[in-house]
């Protein structure tokens, strides 16, 4: 969904939760899809045209200015980035809560293989989304009883992939102007093209559109590219987590018995914390923005979202360069990649990344 990297909870912003479903057999399926349908319906009912919110005397000056900026970014997205020209992000919805949904991730205790869930629209994804925090926590508790590693993350925004006119949400209203614009670019990219069952491809594509779109958006306003120290920190932090995940993979695939793997797992999490402290104190002047995440309980499921957003960004950057920065030709090439089998697609992306 996702996204220039942002605060840690934004890792989840780009993991698109399914907001629709076909009621399947079984009571649990009916209950789950029922809450999805109800939550999405409530969100749709809360939408108002941006013009109406902007002109409402009760709208705060801060929100009014933010929505005026969003209108300009939204027009730029369609006119210059060739993103869908529809009703998405031309409406606003006040939800009255800090997150729009809560995603539940799960893995086996000694594996980083996610428990996946398959849906009619988005295909198979590594989480389940809930519109009520209590429902998410209840589902997480049941999974823990099964011996799974579980993590619940709040989501501030998501895309319905063009099935509905997605609103700017009150959960997004506190963001800075630039971040709001980049989210609009990112989520519209998902509407422009989306491949079922390939999260890395989808998120890397949308992240490239976001990054290049933001560069062009700033240039169009006569602004220089921003040097984002926070983005560098997030990239460093992500690298730390991905390296830890690689070591965990080796532990779980190795010769230790299960008790030995459990001990090694906890030792790896302590190593991750130590390495984080070293980088934080050496390179970030003690900036503690990730302390809450790193010192909260760690498990396999908590590591799942990392690396989804930028794995193939250099490949899409190379592709954009090869078509001379022509957005229409770029999207044609992206769609061609999306039509081939996933293993061939990964090889093609790898070749793009290897080119000078």
From TrEMBL:
<keyword id="KW-0472">Membrane</keyword>
<keyword id="KW-0378">Hydrolase</keyword>
<keyword id="KW-1133">Transmembrane helix</keyword>
<keyword id="KW-0812">Transmembrane</keyword>
<dbReference type="GO" id="GO:0004177">
    <property type="term" value="F:aminopeptidase activity"/>
</dbReference>
<feature type="transmembrane region" description="Helical">
    <location>
        <begin position="12"/>
        <end position="34"/>
    </location>
</feature>
<dbReference type="Pfam" id="PF10023">
    <property type="entry name" value="Aminopep"/>
</dbReference>
<dbReference type="InterPro" id="IPR014553">
    <property type="entry name" value="Aminopept"/>
</dbReference>
<keyword id="KW-0645">Protease</keyword>
<keyword id="KW-0031">Aminopeptidase</keyword>
<protein>
    <submittedName>
        <fullName>Aminopeptidase</fullName>
    </submittedName>
</protein>
């Amino acid at each position: 969904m996702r996204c220039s990297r942002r605060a840690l909870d934004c890792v989840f912003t780009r993991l698109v939760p399914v907001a629709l479903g076909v009621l399947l057999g079984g009571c649990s399926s009916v209950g789950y899809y029922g809450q999805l349908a109800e939550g999405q319906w409530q969100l749709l009912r809360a939408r108002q045209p941006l013009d109406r919110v902007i002109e409402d005397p009760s709208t705060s000056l801060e929100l009014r200015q933010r929505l005026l900026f969003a209108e300009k970014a939204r027009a730029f997205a369609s006119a210059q980035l060739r993103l869908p020209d529809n009703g998405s992000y031309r409406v606003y919805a006040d939800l009255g809560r800090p997150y729009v949904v809560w995603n539940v991730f799960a893995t086996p205790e000694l594996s980083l293989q996610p428990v996946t869930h398959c849906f009619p629209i988005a295909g198979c994804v590594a989480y389940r989304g809930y519109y009520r925090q209590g429902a998410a926590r209840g589902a997480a508790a049941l999974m823990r009883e099964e011996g799974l590693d579980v993590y619940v993350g709040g989501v501030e925004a998501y895309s319905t992939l063009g099935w509905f006119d997605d609103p700017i949400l009150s959960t997004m209203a506190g963001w800075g102007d630039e971040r709001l614009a980049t989210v609009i670019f990112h989520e519209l990219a998902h509407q422009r093209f989306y491949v079922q069952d390939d999260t890395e491809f989808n998120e890397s594509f949308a992240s490239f559109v976001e990054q290049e779109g933001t560069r062009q958006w700033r240039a169009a306003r006569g602004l220089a590219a921003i040097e984002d120290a926070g983005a560098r920190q997030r990239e460093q932090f992500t690298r730390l987590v991905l390296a830890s995940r690689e070591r965990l993979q080796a532990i779980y695939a190795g010769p230790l018995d299960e008790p030995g793997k459990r001990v090694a797992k906890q030792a790896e999490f302590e190593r991750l914390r130590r390495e984080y402290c070293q980088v934080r104190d050496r390179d970030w002047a003690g900036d503690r923005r990730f302390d809450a995440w790193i010192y909260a309980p760690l498990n396999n499921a908590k590591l799942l979202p990392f690396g989804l957003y930028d794995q193939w960004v250099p490949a899409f950057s190379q592709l954009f360069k090869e078509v001379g920065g022509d957005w229409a030709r770029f999207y044609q090439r992206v769609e061609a990649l999306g039509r081939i089998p996933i293993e061939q697609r990964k090889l093609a992306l790898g070749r793009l990344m290897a080119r000078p």
